[in-house]
Amino acid sequence: MTAKNRGHRLCLACWLVIMALVVTAVVEPIRAQEEATSSSTVPPQSGEKAESEAKTATTADTSKETEGTAQEQQPPNPSSQNNNKEGETPRRPKEVIEDKFDASNRDWGSYYDPQNVFCGKYDCYKILGFDYDSFGKNPPDTKVITKRYRKLSREWHPDKSKHRDAKERFVKIARAYEVLTDVQVRKEYDSMRFNQEAYFAKYGTSVLWSYAPKSDVTLVILLIFVVANVAMWYSQQHRWQLVANRLIKAAVEDWSTAQGGTPESKDLRAQALKILYENNNHGNETAAGAVDNGEKDNGAAEGTPGKKGAPKKLKSAIKKVSGKEKKKMEEEALLPVVQALVNEIHDFGGGFHKPTWRDLLIVSMAKAPFRLTTAVVWNANYYVRRMRGVALNDEERQVLTKRAVGPVVWDTKSEDEQQEMMKRELWILSNLAEWEEEQHVKNLSSAEQKQYAKLKKKGKLD
């Protein structure tokens, strides 16, 4: 031990002795004063009883003063002084932080766990009132987790709670406690939070599908069946309307063959003009008779001839119009007449007809087996006849021609044209290509047809 350390220890001992003397000097006067005060406040008593009580009081006071003096003179604990080194702040007792966790909170977050491996659709952290991010940075004590688990269990116990989902939540509370208190399970739970592929790889991809509550199959099928029938009805109406609109436009605007006009559109326009002409003549006769009667009355009153004046006034009332305006007026007058005529056409051929009960899905489904059987039988007979080398009959020619040109084109042709198409054997590809070229040329204007003939003659079309 060095001299310096010895000096320090000597100074410390001297300091302790001085403090003990000072305390003794201060405490003794105080004790004497307290004895005088206590003796003055005690009432005088007689006999041995008073003496004994005084002795008892004196003994009690003396013991109290001795205890107080011993406590005041007791030096500080050297061990505590050695523990608190110079420059260190003495330790404070731990403050007990009150846990403000609300066990009745129903917001338990969300987590993708369709197989209920962990906590199902709830977040295990949220169930026990923790946050995922803060839990990882500053993990709580196991006692805190256990305390919250017990508090939640009391709140959501099925026998005590009135909530409808108390039983389900009680199970999830227990599972959340297991997940958060098991290091390995919690590590897996955290890794699958943002990595659903790992979840699928371990627990299967079937979790992508979830079944809805069961419905009445009969009601569902009936509803689908009704919707399908209504859809087919309106689909057929739409198909007929498309052809009707094109036919009306071609008839009103007087399309040429090159523009897409057909013999049907030209016939329809002719009928509409005839009806319009008859209506105009009937209207003119009625109007002329009314005007003549008015002019006669006016002539008799004014003294002017009525028959000569009426035509002059009618001619002066008619304004001169240009060709475009006249054509527009004619089209506006023809449009309602053509629409009325087209609405009377129920079937344009090729399946473009107004919807009937035969177009419903239920009827088509009923006819499907019969049509399928007929088609199979016909094709079987056809191939047997080809193997036997028998010539084609009229029915086979008609079916093959209709397949080659299509049902729409076949139905739009007249009987003579159909017979001509059957004679040309259009089911042969070369004949069909030649026929299609002729039909294309027919749709051209006369000038274009002449130019086409010249080019074909010179061999420039190839």
The low-pLDDT segments are 39-86, 294-318
Query: What's the SSE pattern?
Result: HHHHHHHHHHHHHHHHHHH
**Number of DSSP strands?**
0
Number of DSSP helical runs: 19
Rg over CA atoms, rounded to whole Å, is: 58 Å
**SS-based class:** mainly alpha
Can you offer a commentary on this structure?
The chain is mainly α. About 70% of the residues lie in helices and about 0% in strands. It has helices at about 5-40, 45-75, 80-85, 125, 130-135, 140-155, 165-180, 185-190, 195-205, 215-250, 265-300, 305-315, 325-345, 360-390, 395-405, 405-410, 415-425, 430-440, 445-460. Helix 11 crosses helix 12 (about 305-315). The longest helix has about 40 residues, at about 265-300. The radius of gyration is 58 Å and the shape is elongated. The chain starts with a helix and ends with a helix.
What tags apply to this protein structure?
elongated, mainly alpha, 462 residues
Write the layout of secondary structure elements.
Elements: H1 3-41, H2 47-73, H3 78-83, H4 124-127, H5 132-137, H6 142-155, H7 166-181, H8 183-191, H9 196-203, H10 217-252, H11 263-302, H12 306-317, H13 323-343, H14 361-388, H15 394-405, H16 407-412, H17 415-423, H18 429-442, H19 446-458
In short:
By secondary structure, the protein is mainly α. The protein has helices at residues 3-41, 47-73, 78-83, 124-127, 132-137, 142-155, 166-181, 183-191, 196-203, 217-252, 263-302, 306-317, 323-343, 361-388, 394-405, 407-412, 415-423, 429-442, 446-458. Helix 11 (263-302) crosses helix 13 (323-343).
